């Protein structure tokens, strides 16, 4: 079992009032039933996220297409967005000087 599947397996989605559903795999090559389920969830393109209420109907639809989507709670979604924003944040430029350091006069006590 991969780490991502283990992570998805331990997510307590029953306790969250809203689910953030992201399509992570492509639609071409999938079954007609899966395509219609994704259409009902309004997932049309990869890496798009929709927010749905956590109802037994939606959870049943997600069970059908669980290999095509990633399911997150609100806290998980916000944490992932913060992590991605920090990764893309501008950093100060690294300035490297190739000139030798200036020599300082050393004082000798006599």
From TrEMBL:
Swiss-Prot/TrEMBL GO biological process terms: translation
Protein name, entry field: Large ribosomal subunit protein uL30m
Region (Disordered): 77-110
Assigned keywords, A-Z: Ribonucleoprotein, Ribosomal protein
Homology family: Belongs to the universal ribosomal protein uL30 family.
GO-annotated cellular components: large ribosomal subunit; mitochondrion
Superkingdom per UniProt: Eukaryota
The keyword Ribosomal protein is annotated on this UniProt entry: yes
Listed CDD domains: Ribosomal_L30 (cd01658)
One function term, GO molecular function aspect: structural constituent of ribosome
Compositional bias per record (Basic residues), positions renumbered to this chain: 79-90
Residue ranges annotated for the Large ribosomal subunit protein uL30-like ferredoxin-like fold domain, each copy included: 20-69
């Amino acid at each position: 079992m991969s780490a991502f599947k283990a992570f998805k397996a331990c997510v307590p989605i029953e306790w969250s009032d809203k689910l953030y559903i992201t399509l992570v795999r492509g639609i071409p090559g999938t079954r007609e039933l899966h395509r219609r389920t994704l259409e009902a969830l309004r997932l049309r393109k990869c890496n798009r996220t929709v927010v749905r209420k956590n109802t037994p109907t939606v959870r049943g639809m997600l069970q059908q297409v669980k290999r095509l989507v990633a399911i997150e709670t609100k806290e998980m979604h916000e944490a992932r967005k913060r992590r991605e924003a920090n990764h893309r944040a501008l950093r100060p430029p690294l300035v490297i000087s190739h000139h030798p350091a200036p020599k300082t006069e050393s004082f000798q006590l006599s």
